From TrEMBL:
<keyword id="KW-0805">Transcription regulation</keyword>
<dbReference type="InterPro" id="IPR011006">
    <property type="entry name" value="CheY-like_superfamily"/>
</dbReference>
<dbReference type="Pfam" id="PF00486">
    <property type="entry name" value="Trans_reg_C"/>
</dbReference>
<dbReference type="GO" id="GO:0005829">
    <property type="term" value="C:cytosol"/>
</dbReference>
<dbReference type="InterPro" id="IPR036388">
    <property type="entry name" value="WH-like_DNA-bd_sf"/>
</dbReference>
<keyword id="KW-0902">Two-component regulatory system</keyword>
<dbReference type="GO" id="GO:0032993">
    <property type="term" value="C:protein-DNA complex"/>
</dbReference>
<feature type="domain" description="OmpR/PhoB-type">
    <location>
        <begin position="133"/>
        <end position="229"/>
    </location>
</feature>
<dbReference type="InterPro" id="IPR001867">
    <property type="entry name" value="OmpR/PhoB-type_DNA-bd"/>
</dbReference>
<dbReference type="InterPro" id="IPR016032">
    <property type="entry name" value="Sig_transdc_resp-reg_C-effctor"/>
</dbReference>
<dbReference type="GO" id="GO:0000156">
    <property type="term" value="F:phosphorelay response regulator activity"/>
</dbReference>
<feature type="modified residue" description="4-aspartylphosphate">
    <location>
        <position position="53"/>
    </location>
</feature>
<feature type="domain" description="Response regulatory">
    <location>
        <begin position="4"/>
        <end position="120"/>
    </location>
</feature>
<keyword id="KW-0238">DNA-binding</keyword>
<dbReference type="GO" id="GO:0000976">
    <property type="term" value="F:transcription cis-regulatory region binding"/>
</dbReference>
<dbReference type="Pfam" id="PF00072">
    <property type="entry name" value="Response_reg"/>
</dbReference>
<keyword id="KW-0597">Phosphoprotein</keyword>
Length: 229
């Protein structure tokens, strides 16, 4: 069986379509119709990736609550929102809660499969054999690729897979400006500018929570971002 994917969607027909399609793509996909049903299943065993709708049955924000719950269990579990709600407010709320990606339901199945494959690839590429683990140290920052761990003055900064990979991209070339296209390409993201901006804001907040004086990620207006050398 392929990697395990959970789809949390309250519409039975839509849920069945996604489960069937992802099984055809070689994944082991299972569907859940409510936040409660998904929560009890995940308490037994976490899948390897979760796709969540925002409105779940009688809970208009049930997907957001589930996302919070899953992030508390795992900082690196890949989470994708797949929803008919695609206002900027919802997109930013979803990313702020720690989702790796946010897609609208008119996204094609092939596009969805490409995003899923990209998230799995990013996780794999960060799991190099221990013997060749890359540790990058830059001032108070320490990045351990294989453990997908970033710490600042010895204190861990809890980043999602997407956030980790974006910091990884910036820190490899301190002082070099990375434009949004480069960040997307190197982090294997397929998102718009607003999404990149949301991720960067969220990364900064997480570093500031650990070190209030943090200002290492610099915005170069109209161009992109860089890690201060």
């Amino acid at each position: 069986m392929g990697r395990s994917i959970a789809i949390v969607e309250d519409e039975p027909l839509i849920r069945a379509n996604y489960v069937e399609a992802l099984n055809r793509f070689g994944y082991d996909a299972r569907g859940y119709g409510s936040r409660r049903e998904a929560s009890s299943a995940f308490a037994m065993r976490l899948p390897e990736l979760v796709i969540i709708d925002i409105g779940l049955g009688d809970e208009p924000e049930g997907g957001f609550d589930l996302c919070r719950e899953l992030r508390a269990k795992s900082a690196t579990l890949p989470l994708i929102f797949l929803t008919a709600r695609d206002s900027d407010f919802d997109v930013i709320s979803g990313l702020r809660l720690g989702a790796d990606d946010y897609l609208s339901k008119d996204t094609s199945l092939h596009q969805l499969a490409a995003r899923i494959a990209a998230l799995f690839r990013r996780i794999e590429s960060l799991k190099a054999p221990a013997s060749s683990e890359t540790v990058i140290e830059h001032g108070p920052l320490k990045l351990e690729s294989e453990r997908m761990r970033i710490s600042w003055n010895g204190e861990e900064v809890p980043l999602t897979v997407t956030e980790f990979w974006m910091v990884h991209t910036l820190i490899r070339f301190p002082g070099h400006v990375k434009n949004r296209d480069q960040l997307m390409r190197e982090a294997e993201l397929v998102v718009d500018d607003a999404t990149i901006t949301s991720h960067i804001k969220r990364i900064r907040k997480k570093f500031i929570a650990v070190a209030p004086e943090f200002d290492a990620i610099e915005t170069v207006h109209g161009v992109g971002y860089r890690w201060r050398p």
